[in-house]
Amino acid sequence: MILLGGCVAAPPPADSYAQRGQAHPTIVSLNPCTDAILADVANPGQLLAISHYSHDPRATSMDVGTARRFRATGGTAEEVAALAPDIVVGSSFMDPATRGALGRLGMRVETFGIAPTVAESVAQVRALAKLAGHPNRGEALVRKIEASLAAPGGPPVETALWQAGGIVPGRDTLIAELMTRAGLASYSARRGMAQGDYLPLERVVADPPALLLVTGSERAQRHPVLARIAGLQVESFDPALTYCGGPSIIRAMARLRAVRAAA
């Protein structure tokens, strides 16, 4: 990174792509959550690469087949520099040294955190669409997201989301809001549990919810005793739908509504 930063001139203006006759900036995304949004709102040739996480079925927030249409990088400054994008989109946890090296190479770097609410996710969609030069596509995606949020009828169903490692989500998370919007009352929040608290099998057996959504694969989460608990419905839930917003909200709401309807 020191060599990269030491052999280049001062960075060009942020709108240099327009000076080169390009209608829109080229982009590399290093964040799996922004990968999915940019794949939806950018032109195919405009998104030069996405994060390697999106090629991994265990980590992606988008359809793997769609993700593999795009080149992936490991997120190093050297890999990104070879692609020479106008804009690099990373996470708020992006390594400062990498960010500094990319900036010295004349690339505009924008970072985005994990959106904890629907409102903040919608704001990210609009910001990324504007960044890509396609605000109208961002609005089209926002309309789809908002349409997926229509509240169902009937009383809420008490639901526990049992994540990898046996933990539960906190109140102030995107997935908690989506569960509420889908008519699912949080089992863990009603019992005073916070983000990352451990939910033991013994507690599920002694005090079961009406619906148990399982995203992990721990032994306790597959224990045969779960099938013998009267009134308990156990359903799997894709862990890829629990963290990112954008298009993932639409898929998450569809799944949550389906399990709510069957409960």
Could you give a quick summary of the protein structure above?
By secondary structure, the chain is an alpha/beta fold. It has helices at 2-6, 16-19, 32-41, 64-67, 77-83, 96-104, 118-132, 135-148, 174-181, 187-190, 201-206, 247-262, and strands at 27-29, 47-51, 72-73, 87-91, 108-112, 157-162, 184-186, 211-214, 233-236.
Gap between N and C termini: 54 Å
Number of strand elements: 9
- CATH level-two architecture of the largest domain: 3-Layer(aba) Sandwich
If you consult CATH, what is the topology of the largest domain?
Rossmann fold
Report the structural category.
Answer: alpha/beta
Q: What helical percentage do the residues reach?
A: 25-40%
Descriptors:
Rossmann fold, single chain, alpha/beta, 5-stranded parallel β-sheet, disordered N terminus, 4-stranded parallel β-sheet, 263 residues
What does this structure look like?
The chain is α/β, with parallel strands linked by helices. The chain has two domains: 2-147, Rossmann fold, CATH 3.40.50.1980; 157-262, Nitrogenase molybdenum iron protein domain (Rossmann fold). It has helices at 2-6, 16-19, 32-41, 64-67, 77-83, 96-104, 118-132, 135-148, 174-181, 187-190, 201-206, 247-262; strands at residues 27-29, 47-51, 72-73, 87-91, 108-112, 157-162, 184-186, 211-214, 233-236. The strands form two sheets. A five-stranded parallel beta sheet has the order 3-2-1-4-5, sandwiched between helices. Helix 6 (96-104) links the parallel strand 4 (87-91) and strand 5 (108-112). The chain is elongated.
